[in-house]
Specification:
277 residues, alpha+beta, four-stranded antiparallel sheet, three-stranded antiparallel sheet, 10 helices, 7 strands
Length: 277
């Protein structure tokens, strides 16, 4: 899809793919600062290698904005080159704030917009800002998002289930109280193919990573993704008759752990015992 002309739609009409993407990116990586009176600004600082994305944002914004670059020392690298996009318009800031970009600290409070929006473009904006796309150290394809917001984590898992059929139950980790939602292998391939469609607005390096995922093929002999296998009454009968998880595992083609858990549930009334037992 070709990029929309800035004047063709109202600024931040979230049904426009480019604006939905841009808003997701701003929620994750932008900072809305309020000053005295009408003063204030929106800033987005990213690596200078990604400056082209800020130029796209500038083109999509029908208000004056500027882009600056700087190089500084950090704890992670001797030097770091960054690019910053700055937008001061009160009208633009008010629009963004009304849609759900808070002033000040926002990591835990951001949530998907209340108005209608293009879901996959919005989700791609979140992932480009706060997520990762590529291959693990074991060369498995993955796509992930790190966020402190429960609403944002749920947004990705809901969309991910619709697109891949894989359910995720997001939980905060105990170390830093954030969510890390991850899709692996075939589910990552399906999700990345949907999000990073041809001609979409995105970070070039993440789109290139997404484009590389389809080349992965599950190695021969590697177990397919787990799917739940329901217990049947005949299996329950055999498990009770054998009274041995290990023997039942061999007879039923199940794991010893699965048979042990099922036997415990049958003995403790957690599931119904077959009628003829």
């Amino acid at each position: 899809m070709a990029e929309s002309e800035p004047g063709a739609h109202r600024f931040m009409d979230l049904m426009v793919p480019e604006y939905a993407y841009m808003f997701g990116f701003l929620q994750a990586d932008g900072h809305l600062q309020q000053g005295a009176g009408r003063k204030g600004k929106l800033t987005v600082e990213i690596s200078a290698r990604d400056i082209d994305l800020l130029r796209r944002f500038q083109k999509l914004t029908p208000y004056y904005s500027s882009i600056s670059e700087r190089t500084r020392s950090t704890n992670f690298a001797e030097t770091h080159s960054a690019a910053t996009w700055t937008l001061c318009s009160l009208e633009a800031r008010t629009r963004l704030n009304e849609l759900g970009l808070p002033y000040g600290r926002k990591s835990q409070t951001i949530a998907p917009p209340g108005a209608e929006f293009s879901r996959r473009d919005y989700v791609r904006g979140l992932i480009d800002a706060d997520g990762s796309v590529g291959f693990t150290g074991r060369d498995f394809p993955f796509i992930s998002l790190t966020t402190a917001s429960h609403a944002i984590a749920s947004c990705l898992t809901d969309y991910g289930k619709d697109m891949t059929g894989v359910a995720r139950n997001p939980k905060r980790n105990t170390r830093d109280d954030i969510y890390n939602v991850v899709y692996m292998m075939e589910s990552a391939q399906r999700l990345a193919a949907d999000l990073y469609y041809p001609g979409c607005l995105s970070l070039e390096r993440k789109r290139a990573a997404a484009d590389s995922l389809p080349a992965w093929v599950r190695p021969p002999g590697m177990r397919a993704a787990y799917t739940s296998r329901r217990w049947t009454e005949p299996e329950d009968r055999m498990l009770l008759e054998l009274n041995s998880p290990m023997a039942a595992a061999k007879a039923l083609g199940r794991t010893t752990q699965s048979c042990n858990l099922r036997l415990w549930r049958l003995r403790n009334g957690k599931v119904l015992v077959p009628r003829d037992q």
